[in-house]
Amino acid sequence: MHGDGGGARFLTAEPDRGDREDQREIDEWLREYLEHEGSAKARDVIHDGKLAGYTVDEIKKARRRIKAATRRHGFGPGSTFFWSIGAIEPIHKPMDSMAPMACRECGAVLETPDSIAAGVCAECRQSANTDPPPTDGGTEKGSK
Description:
Blueprint: H1 6-12, H2 17-37, E1 39-41, H3 42-51, H4 56-65, E2 69-73, E3 80-84, H5 113-118, H6 122-128
Antiparallel strand pairs: 1-3, 2-3
């Protein structure tokens, strides 16, 4: 270890002019890509960015700098992440291909038509006191 603090200075140094130009270039590329596509799968953006000569790390840092929105569709291994500039439009799929719906309050899997229609499990509806007592017996809370 050197006593001159050179290592710390290196870690906190401002990016040089060339780095900032590179950042502007990838930021512009990503912004145009997402504006053109609207909402795009993150893996597609990364794939296309790599083809354009950028690294995965550079692409992800650019996403944060331009404040692109991210959204996950689905749960578990089959879930897909989407990136967009601005609001992400809902993704419509046939019900049989969708991942199980989760309670927007606690995350429990919604199993009954009443809970699915309300978007919350019986226990959360009961605690919020927004609906009459549930007809599904409140069994969903334990099925996380």
